[in-house]
Specification:
Blueprint lengths: L2 E8 L7 E8 L4 E10 L6 E3 L5 E8 L2 E9 L6 E10 L5 E4 L5 E6 L4 E7 L6 E9 L14 E6 L6 E5 L4 E8 L2 E9 L6 E6 L5 E6 L4 E8 L4 E9 L10 E7 L5 E7 L3 E7 L6 E8 L5 E6 L5 E6 L4 E7 L6 E9 L3 E6 L4
Antiparallel strand pairs: 1-2, 1-28, 2-3, 4-5, 5-6, 6-7, 8-9, 9-10, 10-11, 12-13, 13-14, 14-15, 16-17, 17-18, 18-19, 20-21, 21-22, 22-23, 24-25, 25-26, 26-27
Amino acid sequence: MTKYAGYIGTYTKGDSEGIYSFTLDTEAQEITDIKVAAQLGNPTYLTISEDNQYLYAVKKDGDMGGVAAYEITNESRGLSHLRSQLTEGASPCHVSVDRENRNVLTANYHKGTVERFAVDDEEGGVRQASSVIHHEGSGPDERQEKPHTHYAGFTPDEKFVAVVDLGIDKLITYQLKHGELEEVNSLSIKPGSGPRHLEFHPNGKIAYLMTEFSSEVIVLSYNAENGSFSVLQSISTIPEGFTENNQGSAIHVSKDGRFVYAGNRGHNSIAVFSAESGSGKLTFVEHTSTEGNWPRDFEIDPSQKFIVASNQESGNLVLFSRDENNGKLTLIQSDVAVPYPVCVKFLHVK
């Protein structure tokens, strides 16, 4: 029997208390054991260290916002708070950590910033931010009145930091030198598209950029020498003729690199694409309903046989089985209640 442990980040409104843990039982094909793992304000995005010892979450506390570090207890998978770093103003919307658990990055939508925090070698907690970069500019959409940094993560070789800014339609590459972020490259995305999240192909040469406003996946070629990106393809995530409100959400790639999945809030679906070997270019496969409202995130489980999706506004997790041959999804379970779920993360499996 194989069981995988995971965590759900939420908006702490209504009945939500913070971070929830869950178990995916692959034999029974069900999500079980939902419980509160840590009580904190608006832990909407989470990341887990490669060794599964630490979890980092964005955090809101009154008029302060920042990042919180937790130790994951091996037996119960509970979370023990280590340290938080908070500053005045809104909390970040994205957090990530490098493979060696030395650097934590946050992207702050409201402030238009990207921040780097060093990890304490002894306890795994985060120190005060050593580098804070403020973006400048705006875009043509009324929601692009200023920078809105939405994603910050290391490239696969960890030579660079890739940062996506929804407010200024840019993908900016930084290098981390002596704890400071230094810009090395920038790619302008189609004006008004609202780029949101980035996910790399396993080959490290291709990346997929999800847009929020134009509901597209932009296929990018990545140059590992200088950290630059170039556009190869753009493909819509919603059906032709769909005119209702839709906002693109999460994007994930299967471990074999053959399939790409993109979330649609409004159309309330996951768009499935097959990726061409070599070029990474996409071909549409199908749309699958998320059986709820406003699918903010989803994650492919460690076995690659299932996907767990989170419907923020209807407050339910959904379990799909995944056909590894054609990428298609089949609904298994849709009645798992979690209040205002946003982010889904599994513990890493070696």
